[in-house]
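hey
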């Protein structure tokens, strides 16, 4: 069967038709770069350019003042050829459909890259959770979960934490789904609290994966972690943990930027003190033992490693030429645009792409899901050892493909992942 678009030649879904496709447009460019390396499987490539299923929901809740507010929610299942959909849920005022589509597709690539038996999915609600009371946040989470309840499930699609969502939100999601089903279903979400079927090591897993892949790559380019200088953007669950692990390995965390501002200390920030400051103040702003930098100056900081661990499209054609790091480890999803990728490649800056570098979170989500199914829980040592093993093996495979084809690590990861997805697609065949 030869691959076609559709009878009318439409390549872009009508719901996104615009000159600027946003993050989805970036993802499409990344896929296009890989198609020449897919051999015969390229005939199925159109599958990768269309999400399997998109659900847009209205999320009305009663606010504490008695009025009703409506929020827009999404769940996108990009691909389920290799297994159920899997990916986080984010709460952010700037969430868009294009963004959730791209994030769901990056989950398909990521899950295939580390070879966990999932497709890709993502969800989001266009809301700033900081403006909601705890009661409002719970009602919003529960109504959203109930609305997407028709397409999620332990064997269908398994949400998890992402930007501005955490263990408590996963507990409410698990409870809401379970109430609607009439039975406790722990495996419907991962990233849950330990007492509700959560896994040891899950909270640190993304940061630990960032560190593991970063340390592996550093050996390939002769960069010593001990004594290296690191700048980190985003100091939440990913950036904060990665900073802690790198500083424990002897690196100096010289600059940190988050939504509250940018701080700098040439001899390295006191990471445990900074983590404690962020836990109480919600941001790095106001941390006493540091200089304050203008936000844009962050990109000029003298460092060996840069870790973007916040939101998409931070490293662009406008600042890629200024970055002084030798290596960029993408803790965030989609932080680098394709134009910036080209500039960095030209400048010999090694980019460890999101789809492998931040895959530690979903890898331990997979362990959590397996533990929930068997109701048998593993030790933290076992979880961390398995995580490190999977990350190292996946990274070695991607490194080899990058050398072989003389392509970037992003393109190499896409090659490995797209082949796995499309091979599964081909084996399953087209129904009916
Ligand atoms: N939100 C995380 C990510 O972007 C984790 C997803 C998961 O555990 O399902 O990879």
């Amino acid at each position: 069967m030869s691959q076609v678009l559709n009878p009318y030649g439409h390549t872009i879904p009508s719901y996104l038709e615009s000159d600027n496709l946003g993050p989805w447009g970036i993802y499409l460019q990344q896929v296009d770069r890989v198609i020449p390396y897919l051999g015969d499987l390229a005939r199925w490539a159109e599958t990768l350019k269309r999400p399997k299923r998109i659900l847009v929901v209205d999320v009305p809740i009663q606010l504490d003042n008695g009025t009703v507010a409506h929020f827009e929610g999404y769940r996108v299942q990009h691909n389920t050829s290799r297994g159920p959909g899997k990916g986080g849920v984010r709460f952010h005022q700037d969430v868009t459909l294009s963004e959730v589509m791209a994030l769901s597709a990056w989950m398909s690539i990521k899950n295939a890259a580390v070879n966990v038996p999932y497709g890709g999915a993502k969800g989001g609600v266009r809301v700033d959770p900081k403006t909601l009371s705890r009661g409002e946040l719970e009602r919003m989470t529960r109504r959203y979960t109930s609305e997407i309840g028709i397409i999620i499930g332990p064997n269908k699609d398994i949400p998890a934490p992402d930007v501005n969502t955490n263990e408590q939100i996963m507990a409410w999601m698990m409870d809401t789904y379970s109430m609607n089903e009439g039975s406790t279903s722990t495996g419907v979400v991962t990233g849950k609290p330990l007492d509700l079927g959560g896994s040891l090591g899950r909270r640190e897993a993304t940061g630990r994966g960032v560190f593991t892949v970063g340390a592996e790559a550093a050996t390939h380019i002769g960069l010593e972690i001990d004594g290296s200088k690191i700048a980190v953007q985003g100091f939440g669950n990913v950036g904060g943990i990665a900073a802690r692990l790198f500083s424990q390995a002897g690196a100096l965390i010289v600059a940190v930027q988050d939504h509250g501002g940018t701080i700098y200390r040439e001899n390295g920030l006191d990471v445990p003190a900074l983590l404690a400051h962020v836990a109480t103040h919600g941001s790095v702003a106001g941390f006493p033992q540091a200089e304050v930098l203008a936000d844009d100056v962050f990109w000029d900081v003298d460092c060996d490693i840069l870790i973007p661990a916040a939101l998409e499209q931070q490293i662009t054609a406008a600042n890629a030429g200024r970055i002084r790091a030798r290596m960029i480890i993408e803790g965030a999803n989609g932080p680098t645009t394709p134009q910036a990728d080209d500039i960095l490649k030209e400048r010999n800056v090694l980019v460890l792409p999101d789809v492998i570098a931040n895959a530690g979170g979903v890898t331990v989500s997979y362990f959590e899901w397996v533990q929930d199914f068997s109701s048998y829980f593993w030790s933290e040592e076992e979880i961390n050892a398995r995580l490190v093993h999977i990350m190292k093996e996946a990274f070695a495979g991607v490194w080899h493909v990058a050398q072989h084809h003389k392509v970037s690590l992003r393109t190499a990861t896409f090659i490995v992942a797209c082949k796995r997805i499309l091979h599964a697609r081909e084996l399953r065949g087209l129904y009916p």
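The chain has twelve helices and 13 strands. Residues 86-88, 160, 162, 190, 333, 358, 361-362, 365 surround glutamic acid (CB under 6 Å).
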